[in-house]
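for the writeup, i need someone to sanity check this before i put it in the appendix. the sequnce is what the collaborator sent (i think, or maybe the updated version? ugh). structure was predicted straight from it, no edits. if anything looks off just tell me and ill rerun, i have time this weekend
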Amino acid sequence: MDVKTTQLSYEMLRQAFLQSRDARGQILDVMTATLPTHRPQLSPYAPRIETLKIPVDKIGAVIGPGGKNIRRITEDTGAQIEIDDDGSVQIISKDDASREKAILIIRGMTEEPQVGQIYRNVKVSRILSFGAMVEYLPGQEGLVHVSELDHRYVSKVEDIAKVGDTMDVKIVGIDDQHRVNLSRKALMEVPPGLDKENSSAQQARGPRRERSDFSGRQSGRPQPKLTHRAFRSGPGKDKQR
């Protein structure tokens, strides 16, 4: 209201303010009757903005040479990505699906796996003779050994998992070659009548498999082949070769 004019008296101003207060109250009453409280979720048509923090030394990996990686994320998800020098990443998307997809991709490019982390609904990418490979983050695979698939003894990996199946897993170890070992059974309750000790014994009675790397090549040093001229002696006896 313009109060600089000399043509408005104090009484006119007072009445105008009272009328505006009453009008404001009526508008709020109509709004409350239409929508008593805020919506639990945003409208599917409302834009979303999510802010992540990534290590500064990972900024280059997300951007890529000449912006190649960040453009690919935008093309694959439809989300707009903005990165600041301090590692702050803003993800601007038109819906939840594109935002979540962009977050997963960026996490997969920057997150360092830690023992104890849990990943939900990860997809089985490969089946090996000694376990199942799962993609716990985009572009990052880990091994669920056959002994970690279930509390009960598992004869064949295919009895529990097939390519394309999903499962919840927990990181239980990372070896010196940065290979990630995961467990499915760590997130499962022990079946009635089968305690943890019996569960471990069930797996131990299964056929022993040589641990190999993720490309299928067996690791470890080759063992010497014993012949009739090579044997182990008992205490106090020499070993002949």
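Residues 204-211, 215-241 have pLDDT under 50 and may be disordered. The first strand starts at residue 48 and ends at 53.
thx in advance!!
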